[in-house]
């Protein structure tokens, strides 16, 4: 049985926003503790204190999640994991896995018509299905091997272009939030790639 309901959200987030398009209220999607917690980062070699999650970035995440019909996880009952993949120049992808009391896992994957770095667009395609026993076992192995949900919440990445890889989970362990910018390797990338493969969709631009 997977430790926690799995809700994967893959979405790409950039800096451009079309005129007249308003982002969703970020407080609707993320707990206030993320805005109030600071971490020490060293962009360009200069030590700086950053908020774990800025209002600006949260607004962009919320805009993409809302377009995909995704609900906030931090106040949700049950066990959920969400992976959000936001490539700046390509379509946002969101995959959600939920674990029922009997151990069955249901996947909902959504791809939008827009860009992760701008206006999210509308739902282009969606898959809803139960995972096979082999897929559930494979996911459990990846979670145990990578411990991706136990990684530091931020990698202190700072770039104007790339792809946000965001993991959220909720369950007995509480709410967890882990994000990386265009990871080339490591736990977050390994788990994210596994989740993308579960959709059956193929992407040439994986960054």
What does the model show?
The protein is of the alpha+beta class. The chain has one domain (about 25-200): Mago nashi protein (2-Layer Sandwich). Helix content is about 20%, strand content about 25%. It has a six-stranded antiparallel β-sheet, sandwiched between helices. Strands 1-2 form a two-stranded antiparallel ribbon. Strand 4 and strand 5 (about 105-110) form a beta hairpin. Helix 3 runs antiparallel to helix 4 (about 185-200). The radius of gyration is 16 Å and the shape is globular. It starts with about 30 loop residues before the first helix and ends in an 8-residue tail after the last helix. About 40% of the residues are buried. Mean pLDDT is about 85; it is low at about 1-25.
Q: What distance lies between the first and last C-alpha atoms, to the nearest angstrom?
A: 30 Å
Task: Please provide the count of β strands.
Answer: 8
DSSP strand content:
25-35%
- Please indicate the count of domains: 1
Output the CATH topology.
Mago nashi protein
The CATH class name reads Alpha Beta
What gyration radius follows from the Cα positions, in whole Å? 16 Å
Mean pLDDT: 87
Structural class: alpha+beta
Examine the secondary-structure arrangement and name the CATH architecture. Answer: 2-Layer Sandwich
Order of helices and strands: HEEHEEEEHEEH
Largest sheet: 6 strands, antiparallel
Quaternary state, please? single chain
Tell the overall outline.
globular
Low-pLDDT sequence parts: 2-24
Fraction of residues in helix: 10-25%
Strand order of the largest sheet: 6-5-4-3-7-8
Helices, by number, come to: 4
